């Protein structure tokens, strides 16, 4: 599923004049809480109405100009542009930037302050268009036929936040595995009790369900874009933990969208009311916020075996992500007697005989690309993080990581008559077809170009090992979510997963040839398609019933209540 890019209309185009030096010029007199409410209402409508034409009309009529009986001729002209040319006016990412700048220039409301609705509506509308110009200028001057161009184009879409409801449900499924792991892990079980007590939950699974319920119930489309949260029945500890408060923002001049705002999707209003800034921010809080919240809620500074969050996260990466989550799915996919999974201290992380002489070499890597890297569109830092985590060699930094761990396993695999060949039941390396795979967790690595970059670097170091085998396929970067989404497909036959890999290689090779012949940004992006995007485009996007059925049939995910009701 390739991203659909929509051209966004900006201030200079509409008003035929340059944007003001101060992007908040037209709204600087307005109270920040008032602006936040107006922007949060637009975000709610963007979330609930994916149709470009309907969302534009709804937002203009209900959120921007609700007090104007008839829209002006200029506005009607804009909606015509949207309808005729598939162009947009309202964009969640640029509205997030508007929100961030407003928080950095916090203005408290004055008692009795009045606003003139029609003028304020125009001021807010003009400022939205100004931030459209500012935000989308980030790709100007960068070739879209380059890794950097694709990074910038992907990053400004904020796809790591703005996945559809279908993919948010995949995150929810993972919480069942998280909860089961914590319940049985000797190091984390007792901490799990403390975590549940801290947040007023029966078990960690309810942490994920909290956000899902907000999306499906409190965020119903018939709310008319009302961002004020109905808190009856919701755990107050969760609401407070994930809330921004104006006391935290007054005098702040360096608010970070990714570090300060997105992890706190609620804003506390007077009278103990709470507003949802953007429903899409729940994705970050639920996908990335759990283990950090778990650590914060359960750490014991003087006696904790984990000296800091990095130490804790390393434990989670090994024990939960690799040895529990990934291993559980590999065991289900490669369940036949003819298939073998080898995973020892010597042979890491997983070496799998999938069928015949097809061997998967799997490296598992749980990392989080730093949020500021993506927020700042810092391509150099993005590449540095990829190199550090997936392409570092012992001769350079002391330890092989990611793709280069696979080279070491290929050396073991190439020894005819060696232990690894005996464990797999394959007698000769020359008979093997090897599939190098890296399984990761961060959706930012689904960006176009990442797979091609890592696979290219890996291939450059492969020449000495390639001749030992019948064939060594290109490296595949694989999001762990695919194990959940396509479990029922991967396990259909011994050849299912390798057939899918081969089809992906054919797709990339064909589009690379097309790009070399015809050039162009579109062709460049197609041949740099990630494996995740390829799979989601190849199969239908309504497999939720198949996914749930497959997970239920293959795993015992009955969740016990062991938190606040323990005693």
What does this structure look like?
There is one protein chain. 53% of the residues lie in helices and 8% in strands. It has 567 residues and is of the alpha/beta class. It has three domains: 7-155, no CATH class; 165-298, no CATH class; 316-554, no CATH class. The strands form three sheets. Strands 6, 7, 8, 9, 10 and 11 form a six-stranded mixed beta sheet that branches. Helix 2 packs antiparallel against helix 5 and helix 5 (92-104) packs across helix 6 (117-136). The chain is globular. The mean pLDDT is 87.
Features:
567 residues; alpha/beta; 6-stranded mixed beta sheet; 28 helices; 53% helix
- The best one-word shape is globular
How many separate helices?
A: 28
End-to-end span in angstroms?
48 Å
How many structural domains in the coordinates? 3
**Taking all residues together, what is the mean pLDDT?**
87
Helix content: 40-55%
Structural class, from helix and strand content?
alpha/beta
Radius of gyration: 25 Å
Q: What's the number of extended β-strand segments?
A: 11
Low-confidence stretches: none
**β-strand amount:** 5-15%
Q: Biggest sheet, open or closed, and with what strands and sense?
A: 6 strands, mixed
Task: Walk me through the topology.
Elements: E1 7-8, H1 11-15, H2 32-48, H3 52-64, H4 73-85, E2 87-88, H5 92-104, H6 117-136, H7 147-155, H8 165-184, H9 189-199, H10 205-218, H11 236-241, E3 243-244, H12 257-261, E4 266-269, E5 273-276, H13 281-287, H14 289-298, H15 309-333, E6 340-342, E7 350-355, E8 358-365, H16 371-375, H17 379-390, H18 394-397, H19 403-413, H20 419-424, E9 433-440, H21 450-460, H22 463-466, E10 471-472, E11 476-479, H23 481-485, H24 487-490, H25 496-518, H26 521-527, H27 531-538, H28 544-554
